[in-house]
């Protein structure tokens, strides 16, 4: 697919994922582990069905013989799934989103250190500007509950995501090498999302007893498991073949913009001046980063033509 198609699909993935915060606020239950269990369990069921349709029975025959890289990615998904929902019940949505905003910076550092990728200056500037925009969005929210425990739990999301995107980027690089004659087959990473959802459900199930979720909550958590978790994560894994890990992480900050918009539409939460200014800065950083990429691409094409 083209780069613009990949960016559009990544934007769709963040739009789907952004519903988590506002839907969580409509739950009747406040048991963080039970909420996490049901969301992960519904996601695992949806993923099992989707991946069986896509991959067929071979999915289950090969799953337990998969290499360590798939299980590492699965553990990262499980950490992200669990930490996000637990943090949402321990502190404010704003605090969780601000904490997650450091994800692109951590991802960029991991890719630079472990994969030895040189990021262009425009991408570094975009990461810093977007992070500042997220912080500015919530600077005026003095009512935000800055729970220390909630913040520490939320920190698990950007760290696990950074490791995961780095792993997916490495697999994507191996996939390019596999195209050449004699290249080795590359591990299919889509089942890693299923592994993550199952691990998250298994880990939180004993902590969720006795189950007390109402029918109302189960409906919302079922929607979250499919729409907010399973589909966006599958899209991200697929897009890791098309986009650099720091760019995927940077685009994921759109989840904050969409999340604030959902809160405004669904709960009539007013949009403050800080929110509008910070959101504008985030979008501007993403646009400038994309324009800089296009300029670099045009320069490379001109140099190639001159050499010919």
From TrEMBL:
The chain crosses the membrane at residues 37-56, 68-90, 96-115, 122-140, 146-168, 189-209, 221-241, 248-265, 271-292. Signal peptide: none annotated. It comes from the Bacteria. One of its GO terms (cellular component) is membrane. SUPFAM superfamilies: Multidrug resistance efflux transporter EmrE. Pfam families: EamA (PF00892). Residues 6-138, 153-288 form the EamA domain. This is EamA domain-containing membrane protein RarD.
